[in-house]
Design a protein that fits this description.
With 633 residues, this protein is mainly beta. Helix content is 3%, strand content 59%.
Length: 633
């Protein structure tokens, strides 16, 4: 929080990390400028991220001519200007530009050769948004607009010496207007209304060239829409006799009219009962309709040769040719969601919060990429599979398909417990609550790639004692721990009428990572005091079994991973700053992801790990160590 009337700050951040197995180095350099004045602020950020190539040879699973993770460079710059036009009106504009260049190796150009087939690509994204909001009497109004342009160019070598090209461009633009306020005073409080009118446009074109044959697509979608919500207080002890808590009902509805689909209608209802100041219950139901994404519909075919793939029908890992792209025959999806929740701040134990949530989803005509090729999936989509005369899988068309019906439900429950000690400081947002959220900077970050080890937390927020700090101000300390358990009740898919139902909790799968895990446990805890802190997060899932064909079942073992963070705000170490003045304004973070280098063990019916499920494939990074230093001027 900045309270100075005129504030200027320049910050520089550098971080670098390596997996303990070696073979790859990842780094980032970022600079930022922040100026806050009486009438607004200006914020500019620029950065460069680099990751080196990781090959199969560096994990002893294949040749040096095929990569597990690509080489990449990402450059980005974004700027925000915010101004107060008068006492009740604010305006802001944001601009962001980023570009990523990547290189992957697809295998030898000739069998046993040293020259690799390459795929190099460049993606470039430009995003702009602008908004203005203010007051009209007691009503708040807002206007916003946006424009984005995303371009991609990919070249892929072929063993014939030719080079395939894939080029796509997407522009999105739109705007919205919102008006919200109190309609009238009801019997239990003010009745509030929010109305939003919106328009969004999409333009997508792509071109794919393979062996001299060119395939082009040119699609567009215009979607006007209107959204409204009405909040009705039903009970409030300040208005009625008796006290059974506060009850409110929110009704919402939306209509969108895509130019390439029939009108989409959605509605929902949310009932919130604050039984006491410490106990609340919530029940909500939503029914939505959604059109497939424009790239799911219209992306040009992209063919990738020499992809390693596990064939459930034969129990072999083979190299195949895959085709991705769009499917213009996809249908609109219909979703129905039910949620029941309880949140309780235990009055007998200060700082302890308990929550229980039940969620159920039923959806029709969901759009998905072609699932992993189990015997059930092959029976449902035989036209997507190509085998040679000996039954060996040679090609797979992975373009999106519609599932007839999807149903899943789960219960998530747990606790969050935290307290301050020493000199008390105001608690900031995000200190973990009924939903089990973690504090800002507490292990959340940009994914680093890899598999079973979980997401690679790179940013980790901005460290303690500053924007995104862990536990608020620099004085005193705080500890916090949360533990949550998710128990999946159902996870089923009906692909097509007449095809056996897929039960992902009992032998079926749609992805290469196996079926659904019945149990998931999440632990997160940390301690912060006098500028020093540590945070540990852990995750355990119970694994699954996938029923195979003649090759037998495939067992996906359970997996437990731990991530550890150490951080220090050197500003709160006066003796060190006195000796080394250059460290003033500095923060340091050391993170270790997948602390024990855990790998999910995947075995076939004979207890053998298939080639495609070697640890080098499912989690190329493994244990990952990163050091970050940030300094403000």
């Amino acid at each position: 929080m900045v309270l100075k009337p005129n504030f200027r700050q320049i910050a520089v951040e550098a971080e670098g990390g390596i997996p303990t197995h070696g073979g790859r180095f990842q780094s980032e350099v970022e600079g930022s400028f922040l100026a806050i004045g009486e009438n607004g602020r200006v914020n500019v950020n620029a950065g460069w991220e680099q990751s080196s190539l990781l090959t199969e040879a560096e994990r002893d699973v294949g040749p040096a001519t095929r990569s597990l993770l690509p080489q990449s460079d990402t450059y980005s710059i974004d700027a925000t200007i915010q101004r107060s036009l008068d006492k009740v009106t604010d305006a802001s504009i944001n601009l962001r530009l980023d570009q990523t260049d990547s290189l992957s190796l697809l295998g030898p150009a000739v069998p046993g050769g040293d020259d690799p087939l390459e795929r190099d690509s460049r993606s470039r994204n430009l995003t702009t948004t602008a908004s203005v909001n203010g007051m009209l009497g007691d009503w708040r109004w807002s206007l916003s607009g946006n424009y984005a342009d995303a371009d991609q160019l990919t070249f892929t070598d072929r063993v014939t010496g030719a080079r395939d090209r894939f080029d796509s461009s997407q522009q999105s633009f739109g705007g919205s207007a919102n008006l919200s306020g109190t309609v009238t005073e009801g019997w239990a409080g003010p009745i509030r209304l929010s109305l939003t009118g919106s328009y969004s446009g999409l333009r997508f074109d792509s071109e794919s060239e393979r062996s001299g044959a060119i395939t082009t697509t040119d699609l567009g979608r215009d979607t006007p829409g209107v959204f409204g919500s009405l909040t009705l207080p039903l009970l409030d002890p300040e208005y009625q006799i008796g006290n059974i808590g506060r009850v409110s009902l929110t009704l919402s509805g939306q209509v969108q009219n895509p130019s390439d689909f029939a009108a989409l209608k959605s509605w929902g209802a949310n009932l919130n009962w604050g039984v006491t100041d410490n106990l609340s219950l919530i029940a909500s139901f939503n029914q939505d309709e959604a059109a497939p994404g424009i790239q799911q519909l219209g992306a040009a075919p992209l063919v990738t040769p020499a992809v390693t793939y596990y064939d459930f029908a034969t129990g072999q890992t083979v190299e195949i040719t895959t085709t991705t792209g769009g499917n213009p025959f996809l249908l609109a999806e219909q979703r129905r969601d039910l949620k029941l929740g309880l949140n309780w701040e235990v009055p007998m134990v200060e700082g302890l919060r308990l929550s229980v949530n039940y969620n159920r989803n039923k959806s029709d005509d969901t759009s998905n990429s072609l699932p992993v090729l189990t015997p059930e999936i092959e029976a449902a989509f035989p036209d997507r599979v190509t085998r040679d005369a000996n039954g060996v899988l040679v090609a797979l068309d992975q373009r999106p398909v519609n599932f007839d019906q999807v149903e899943n439900s789960q219960i998530r429950w747990g606790l969050n417990f935290g307290k301050s000690f020493g000199q008390q400081t105001p608690r900031g947002p995000g200190l973990g609550g009924p939903g089990g959220g973690r504090p800002d900077g507490a292990g959340a970050g940009r994914p680093r790639g890899g598999g079973g080890g979980g997401p690679r937390a790179a940013g980790g927020g901005r460290g303690p004692g500053g924007p995104g700090g862990l536990f608020g101000g620099p004085q005193g300390g705080r500890w916090q721990v949360s533990l949550y358990h998710t128990y999946k009740l159902t996870d089923k898919i009906q692909i097509r009428p007449g095809v056996p139902e897929l039960d992902l909790l009992n032998g079926s799968a749609t992805g290469s990572g196996g079926g659904s895990n019945r149990h998931l446990f999440e632990l997160d805890g940390g301690l912060f005091n006098k500028g020093l802190g540590v945070r540990l997060s852990a995750r355990y899932d119970s694994g699954s079994t996938v029923t195979g064909g003649t090759a037998g079942d495939l067992d996906f073992g359970d997996l437990a991973t731990f991530n550890l963070r150490f951080f220090a705000d050197l500003n709160q170490q006066p003796k060190l700053i006195e000796k080394l003045p250059f460290l003033k304004g500095s923060r340091v973070r050391l993170s270790i992801d997948n602390l024990f280098d855990a790998q999910r063990k995947i075995t076939d019916a004979n207890g053998v790990v298939p080639l495609n499920y070697q640890p080098g494939y499912i989690d190329p990074l493994g244990r990952y160590i990163e050091l970050e230093w940030r300094k403000t001027f």
